[in-house]
Amino acid sequence: MIKFEKSVDRRDTDSMKYDGVEDLYNVKDVIPMWVADMDFAAPQEVISALKLKVEHGIFGYPGNTFKYYEAVVNWMKRRHNWEISEDWIFPAPGVVPAITAILEEITQPNDKVIIQSPVYHHFYNMVHKVGCEVVDSPLVERNGKYEMDFEGLERLICNNVKAFVLCSPHNPVGRVWSKKELQKLGELCLKHNVTVISDEIHNDLVFKPNKHTIFTEVDPQFVDNTIICTAPSKTFNLAGLQTANIIVPGENLRKIVGEKFSKVYNSFPNTMGIEATKAVYKYGDSWLDELLDYVERNIDYLQEYIEDKMPQIKLIRPQGTYLVWLDMKEVDTKGLSAFEFTLQNAKVVAEPGEKYGGPSSSIRLNLACHKKTLEKALKQLSSALQSK
After folding, report:
1. Alpha-carbon distance values, 370 to 2, 67, 305, 363, 367 (Å)
2. Would you say residue 49 lies in a domain?
3. Which residues of the chain, if any, have pLDDT below 70?
4. Is the model's pTM score more than 0.85?
5. How many other C-beta atoms are found inside a 10 Å radius of the C-beta of residue 280?
6. Same-domain status, 250 and 176
7. Which of 257, 283, 309 marks a domain boundary?
8. Among 348, 340, 335, 337, which Cα is nearest to 381's?
9. Number of folded domains in the chain?
10. The domain spanning residue 143 has which CATH number?
11. In which element (H, E) is residue 340 found?
12. Euclidean distance between CA atoms 250 and 334, whole angstroms
């Protein structure tokens, strides 16, 4: 746990989370808990691997990438009990550009694509960018967690829907979908010939006893209409290395994705991303296990603090991810959104709920931070509530 207590000064490092926030919101001396990256250094094995590459001094085109594919295959088998073949893997510079390219290939302008709000804001952007129409099937909150509205979904999916972009585990509400839920969703999409693009970038970040299920592993019949999107970026704090892996078990979709990627991604991911991915997928297990324990302790602390000192705030406790969704509709924010209130009165930068298609009374907080950062943020928020 000691490695996660070590403070790393991220200011003046071209960090979006720390340096970008001052420009974006014209504020200073705030606690940034918004962008979904961690305040923890990557595993030492990554740093060592990158140092070796830098010391070698040549950064030409990568060629023999067998060890890269081998690392991805072994990680999926070891952590998810998912046996994949190397030829199913398509490297990409990120999940967002990959999904955008896939949507562009499998849809026509004005086709419809289903998403489930509140959801990662880039889902809206991706669909609009390719000229398609967003069809929203909002999640429903029941008993302190969000669920899929299958009745509403079935009504929507009948009308010229070509694709479903699934967030699994879900950002921002932290749901880890059960196998039963995924089975029902998969059968609906199969029945109506809807391609599922499953964004599983948070698939390693799941708290026990919850278990992530790879969408194609739910039912063999889902293989032919599903594309799985993964990356080491959220798991190991490597977003800036822009490396993702799109995994396509179905032969027909694999051909479509392969042809599209050969047009838009003419080379392999950057050489540093290759080295980092090999290192974390070979050596990252214990680091990840400790990370999950640390983040879950932060969630416990947040829940206890809210229950004790800020009961007017409702926490939707996440089953996965290091993100939490807070409902502040019972707070008198004097006409401000929850985001504005938190920023102006507590000097804490969250993500606004409306950014994700949720209510303005909600915010998303990033708990992949040092506990002392969380403690300070909660004290400032509690003080703001008392003095409003």
Report:
1. 11, 34, 16, 20, 8
2. no
3. 1-2, 266-267, 388
4. yes
5. 25
6. yes
7. 283
8. 348
9. 2
10. 3.40.640.10
11. helix 338-346
12. 53
